[in-house]
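Backbones bend. Shown next:

***
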Amino acid sequence: MKRFTIALVTAGMMATSSLALAAEKSFNVLGQPLATGLIQKNKEQPFFENFAENTGLAIDANYKPIDVTGIKSEETLRVLKNGLFDIVSIRTAQAARDEVFLLGQDLVGLNPTYEKARQVYDAYKPHFAARLQEKFDAKLLGLWPFGPQVLFCKPEISGLADLKGKKVRVYDQNLSQFIESIGATPVPIGFSEVQQALSRGVTECAITGASSANTAGWPEVTEYFMPIGFQVGFNGYAINMKTWNKLSPEEQEKMQAAFDKLVDDIWVYSEELFEDALRCNVGKEPCTTVTKYNMKEVPVNEEDLKIVADAVKTVSFPTWSETCEKNYPGCTELWKKVLGPLTGIE
């Protein structure tokens, strides 16, 4: 009996010691803003809060949404490179200010549907990952889309032509150039500040995902909703290479498998949220994930769809290419080789 008791105590001490060691090994993680809504709340944060369980590794995650840290979205890859965080949730549109090549997979008009976005992502991913490692000493763990980035307006509109002369909130340079091309004035504003900017008239219209805008209360200060997708808002995860290289090959395999599962799960969830938000924003049923509003839906006509689709060749690719070549010579030909077959651009 005494030996059995000693064995139990010893086993208990070993288990406690093992847990303590696991707790000592922790990754600092910079996440999506709380303000962006349900993907952050229901998928990303739970994944990192249960990091050891989800990865099968004796590693905890010290998870912080970016909007509680004081760090700006365009700084995410910088803080990853300098080791302040081990893993960051990449906000590609903002991070592209440091490396425009990353934005090459989400040019205006390139990804009209989830299916097309997945094709573009699969083709561009190896090159996105290579540039990420070269420029920021980071390994790509995977990317997912927020969903089609659509239009919310306070004044009445019936189509894209009515944006002429209006101030429109944008979030990256490529979208800014497209908005200029149709006669509107692009206004770059951080996501968390948009609702107030719309309320005060700093901007008259704004572009983001249908679900994120709903969660952030944009329908409370806008009246017209046009579900035309300009981009899909790629975001995702990267890990500092020094952190990655400290893991054994087996640990690396487990971690990558866990992120593959998370990313695939978010792809499916993102589309579910988008479809539901399309209904919720204009007061239709079923509405199950976000708040029901009674915005006026602006029908998307063939002419406007063509304007956005044609933008890849006429505006977004040429302007992106010019900027990219200044910092990454040869990126134009690389883009054409990778995405030319999907776009017809040679």
Summary: The chain has a mean pLDDT of 92. The first strand starts at residue 26 and ends at 31. The chain has two domains: 23-146+233-267, 149-231+276-343.
